[in-house]
Amino acid sequence: MSKTAGRRVKLLEPLGKGGFGAVFLAEVRSPGGLVQRMAVKLLSAEMEQHAEIAARARDEARLMSQLNHDNVVKIYGLTQLGGRWVVLMEYVEGADADSLSRASLRTTGQPIPLGIALRLGEATAGALHAAWTTVSPQTGRPLKVVHRDIKPANLLLSRGGAVKVLDFGVARAEFDREVYTSSAQFGTARFMAPERWIYGEAGPASDVYSLGVTLWELATGLRFERPALAPAPFEEALDDRMAALRTSLGASHGAHVEALSALLRSCLAYERTDRPEAAAFEDRLSALAEGVPGNLRRYARETLPSLLEARREALRQDPDLAQLSGSVWLEGPVDEPSGPPADAAVHPRLPDAGATFALDPPTAATSPSDGPPARGRVWLWTLLLLATVVGTALVMVPQSAPEPIGQAGEPEVVVAPPAAPSATPVQVVTASEAPDDAASRRGEDPAPATQPSTTAPEVVVQAAPDLQPEVEAQPEPDVALQTVSLRVLADPTEGHLVHASGVTAVRDDVVLEAGKTHEARFEGTDWSERCELAVEPTHARIRVTKGQGCWLE
After folding, report:
1. Considering the domain 1-91+313-363, what is its CATH architecture?
2. Is the pLDDT of residue 346 over 70?
3. Rounded CA gap, 468 and 423, in Å?
C-alpha cells in the first residue's frame, strides 16, 4: 500500500502551557483539501524523555477517542510532528472552573453563582457516568473509566456555555494501553476519597467524592482541607464543611441550600457504598438547578472575554511558545517513518516562526507490492543478489565494518535473509539546542545524502586479515552504587516529582543515586518548581515549597 502525504499543521497561537508541555491552536490541512481548526497537545522535549509520561499521554488520547460524549473533548488524531507525539483535539475556547472561581472572588468578593456551579456539576456527573458505562469499540465491554483527578481546574467552560471534562491522563480504564498504573496514587490530595488514602483503591464512587469536593469549593469559594481518615472525626469535619456552605450561601437561596447540603453530604460519605452513583448525582443536580437561576452561555459571554485575553497576552510573552507560533509542520507516518529524499535538506532544529518544516516526506515505493522500487533500492537488492551468488566465500571471510551506502537512512547490507529496508526518522532538537548540539546528540556529522549509481556496484571479497592472538579481557571490578531513599514532601501537600526514573507522588519515596546531582521538576496543581538535587547519603527527604524551590534534608 503506497504512502500518501500527511496533514499540514500550522501552529497559530498557544492556548496553554504546563509542566508537561503546551497546547496550540492549529490550522490542519488534509491532502483532500479539508481545513480544520484543532487544538494540538504537544509534550515538551524534556517530558518526551520520560517514557512513562509520554506513554501515558498517548494512552489518554486512545482512551478519550473511545468516549463520545458532549462533555468530553473529542480526539481527532494521535500522530507525530517533528519526532514528537502529538494529540489532535477538538478546539474548545474557554476557561477552567478554578480560574472562574478565582476571578469571581477577586472582582466581586463572592464565589461563582450557585446556579452556575450546579450546572457545571451536572454536566461533569453526566460525563463521569458516560466514562464508566461507554462500551469500548475495541473490546465490546464497558470502558469503566475512573478519572481520578476531578477538580475545578479540570472542568472547562467554553465561550458557548458548553462544559468539558479535561485531563484523562491519569485515568484508569479497561482498555489496551502502553503503561499500566502502578501502586502510586494519582490525583490532587484534598479531592481524593478516604478509600484512596486507606486502601489505594479508586472507583466510580471516588470520582463522585471528588466532584462533591469540587462543588463545595465552587459554591463556597473556600478550600476543602482533607478530613481526618477515621469515621468519627471525618463526620465531625463534614458537619463543619456543611455549616460553612450554609454560611457562604446565606438565606438568599432558601431551601435550595439545605437540599444541596444534603446532596453533598451523601457524595462525601466516608463509606463509598453510601455515595450515589454518578447518574443519580446528575439527576439530583439537574432537579436542584431547575429552581436556581443560572445560564452557562450568558455567564460565559459575560466573564470569559477578559480572562481569555489576559491568558493570551501572558502566553505571548513566553519566548519558547513564540518561536513555535506560526511554524508549519508536515505530518509523517508513525509506524514506518520514511527518511528524506536525497535532495532534501534535513532541518537540525525546530523551525523558525513562519517557516515550513518538512517532516518525513513521502517516498515513492516502500515495498515490492507498491510498484517499481526506488533507484537506491534497485542497486541495494542487486548487491544482495550478487552477494548471494558469491555465497560461502563472502560469508566465511571476515570483513571490516561496512561503509554507509545508498540514501541516508538505508539499512546496512548483510548476507542473510534480508529484512525489509527501514529508514531513520528525521531528528529534531528543541529550541534551546544549537544545530551542532543536535548532530553531537545523534552521534554523527550532518552530511548530504549521496545519490547512488545506476549501475550495479562491484562486489569485493576481502582477504582474511592476519589473526592476532586473543588476549583474555580482564573483568572490570564491580562498583557498588550507593542509593538513597528520599521521601517527597511539599507545601501545599499535593502534586508529584518528575525525575529521570519516572514520577513520584507527595509522601511517596524515590530512590536516587548518591554523589550525583539529579535534575527534576515538581508539579503542583497550578504551580511548578525546578529542582537540582545534589544527593548525599545523609539525605532523607526532598522538600518542595511553592514559590521557594526545592531542597534536601
Report:
1. 2-Layer Sandwich (3.30)
2. no
3. 37
